[in-house]
Amino acid sequence: MTSTTTNIFGATSTTEEVLSGTDLRGKRILGLTTPFGFHSTATEVAAGVDLTGKRVIVTGGAAGIGIETVRTLALAGAEITLAVRRPDAARPVAEKLRQATGNAALEVRPLDLSDLRSVQSFVDDWTGPLHILVNNAGIMAVPELEKTPQGFELQFGTNYLGHFALTLGLHRALAAAHGARVVSVSSIAHLFSPVIFDDLGFDFVPYTPFGAYGQSKSAAMLLSVGITRKWAEDGILSNSLNPGAIATGLQKHTGGLKTPVERRKTPEQGAATSVLLAASPLLEGISGRYFEDCNEAELLTKRPADLTGGYAAYALDTENADRLWDVSQQLVRGIGE
Ligand SMILES: NC(=O)c1ccc[n+]([C@@H]2O[C@H](COP(=O)([O-])OP(=O)(O)OC[C@H]3O[C@@H](n4cnc5c(N)ncnc54)[C@H](OP(=O)(O)O)[C@@H]3O)[C@@H](O)[C@H]2O)c1
Questions:
Q1: Which member of 213, 290, 311, 314 is catalytic?
Q2: Of 44, 97, 247, 271, which residue is most buried, by most CB within 10 angstroms?
Q3: Which CATH number fits domain 4-331: 3.40.30.10, 3.40.50.720, 3.30.930.10, 3.30.70.1020?
Q4: pTM of the model
Q5: Does ligand 1 lie within 6 Å of residue 67's CB atom?
Q6: pLDDT at residue 31, as a whole number
Q7: Count of C-beta atoms within a 10 Å radius of residue 33
């Protein structure tokens, strides 16, 4: 049976149209391009977009790329919750953003993605519809194997599983928005590892900081594919992205950003693809895909040595997405039920 999904701008597409874009085994339609590119800023991407009356959550919204994502969506008139693990540090950032944007509807709420109890409490406190969820927060290259309070490897637990639990817990709120968007901030580093289903916690496979980061970012991409497959009929669309190389607190374990200067972006440029996926009418009806530099990325058959771009099939594979969804539901049992 054909059903129709309406996005938050009022445009409609059939569920079949949405789902056909996710099938890597034959039905994939050609890569989506936009007038934007590497140098585009979040402000340029959001020009003309009106988010008045739209409710948004940005995880990690008080640092790095998150700040620029919040700033841009706030200028477009959205009501925004900055979901952060250090509320005291985030409050002055939110106040500056209120003053800079003239948008008073910015609030800070505590959320520690590495602890499922904190995710549960955030979800329990949320009421009403949610139009845009930007799963942005993350940690990178934790030097030694560390585990979350519930026993998951820290990067998988924070970057992926916490966001999975959050998204699942907010399902009803997203469905109630009638055309919600979920954005998964992934990374080119997903090319370092697929999801290792047989050993998610590095209990057998030797732990490496970027192997674990790569796994978590492949999982983040699969989450968008999973949302597309499970929730398109609720009108919920989701895409993932690589923001590019931006000097932020993310590189605290790696001695700073090592990317050559000409390939780096400013935070404003780094937030552009997030804002495109969160709020641009150019993405109407598009779901389950991966973007970089504001355009759909190209499928690779091998990881390029210079990590210039592209994605690995394993990170958008529908069987992997279904499997990860099922496994994750088991791991976060209780959240949102
Ligand atoms: N910067 C890049 O070059 C780059 C490249 C590819 C992908 N990305 C991705 O872009 C996203 C944003 O990164 P960024 O560069 O803006 O880094 P950032 O400045 O370090 O910001 C990351 C945010 O995530 C938050 N966070 C970390 N652990 C958390 C937890 N357990 N619970 C809740 N929040 C948590 C951080 O909070 P605290 O301030 O409390 O630490 C911070 O607000 C990440 O997903 C990252 O993987 C970035």
A1: 213
A2: 271
A3: 3.40.50.720
A4: 0.94
A5: no
A6: 87
A7: 11
